[in-house]
Amino acid sequence: MNYTFHDKLVRDNIPKIIIADGKGVSIKKSIDPEASLKAKLREENDEFLGAESNECKIEELADILEVLQSLAKVSEFSVYEVEERCKSKRVEKGGFDDFIILNHVETKDGDF
Fold it and tell me: Is 49 a member of any domain?
């Protein structure tokens, strides 16, 4: 028998899909869901950054959105609350539509 070790958070139906493919699987439940989701977010972010085709990009963005929704839930926020905060920040500070890069800020002596 050959084993491939992953030790990472996967979508809920992945073990069933693997079994349906005729393979064995070993799973456990995360003892720290927030930490597992943060690691998954880093993984999905890296995969998005490395994606070249539009098909790969949208797949990774969908994964990122799924992880963010789960992070909101384990943090005891509703997705609605997160969306409302996003909207209020957009009104107050704007979005990222204009792709503005802040080079520097000039301060007067004594200012921080």
Answer: yes
Q: What are the CA-CA distances from residue 38 to residues 17, 66, 67, 101, 111 (Å)?
A: 24, 12, 8, 27, 36
Asked whether 91 and 82 are in contact (CB, 8 A), the reply is no
As a whole-number percent, the residues of the chain with pLDDT over 70 amount to: 99
Which residues constitute the domain of residue 45?
14-79
Instruction: Say how many CA atoms lie within 13 Å of 107 toward its Cβ.
Output: 5
Q: Cα Rg for the chain, rounded, in angstroms? A: 20
Q: What is the average pLDDT value for the chain, to the nearest integer?
A: 95
pTM of the model: 0.85
99 in a domain, yes or no?
A: no
Average of per-residue pLDDT across 79-108: 95
How far apart, in Å, are the Cα atoms of 3 and each of 15, 23, 25, 45? 15, 10, 9, 26
Q: Is residue 110 part of a domain?
A: no
pLDDT at 111 over 80: no
Judge contact between 8 and 35, C-beta under 8 A.
Answer: no
